[in-house]
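User: quick one, fold this
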Amino acid sequence: MERLEFKHQESIDSMELSIHLSRYRIVSAQVAGKDVLDIACGEGWGSYLMAKYWGARRVHGVDISPRAIENARTAFPLPNIKWTVMDAQEMDDSLLDAPYDIIISIETIEHLFHPKVFLERISRVIAPEGLMVISCPNDHWYYGPGRSKNPYHVNTYTFDEFKELTESVLGNARSFYFGTRVEGFAALPADHFRDRPETLTQSLNQLSETGAMEILPSAGLIPELKDALFYM
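Assistant:
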């Protein structure tokens, strides 16, 4: 999964949105009242969810792409979100509002030639007892063994390699997660959906927060690490 583009929201595939949401959802219960740094935020939907729906006090969205940051400013203008163009590997601490209670970086390290430098830099701007959330895709699942076929990915990680890299800089993780596809059904309150949500992104967010849901791994399979779509 690469960057989501929100210029034409109704053309965005709901599966891609759910992949994106599942990564950010991991912090939905932790960000209320917190200061958050979202590194490699892309066009800012994750930053928007944290600032608008999940109660973050303020969110700082950072991305290397000027186009992505400009689109984020246009699509998700909120007073408690700050947008900055910055290279994740060469972060300028003077442009950051450190320290941050939570730092989240979704699908970033596979793009970097010097991922340890990046991890060391974010470790400087986290508050004591702060929470850092890092994810990367399992390119072996997407593209097969060997070097990634994704031209934007300069590194490919197995789970063990991802674990060794992150813990070698950040210390022992509180926990690890791996992403898998699921299937299921939900009983949704009719009144909540009587009026059609304004956008596909709002619709997906509502679906994720309402009703009684039952989900199972796709095809009833027990997930294994080798079949993970991403690691966190």
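User: anything notable?
Assistant: Residues 159-170 form the longest helix (12 residues).
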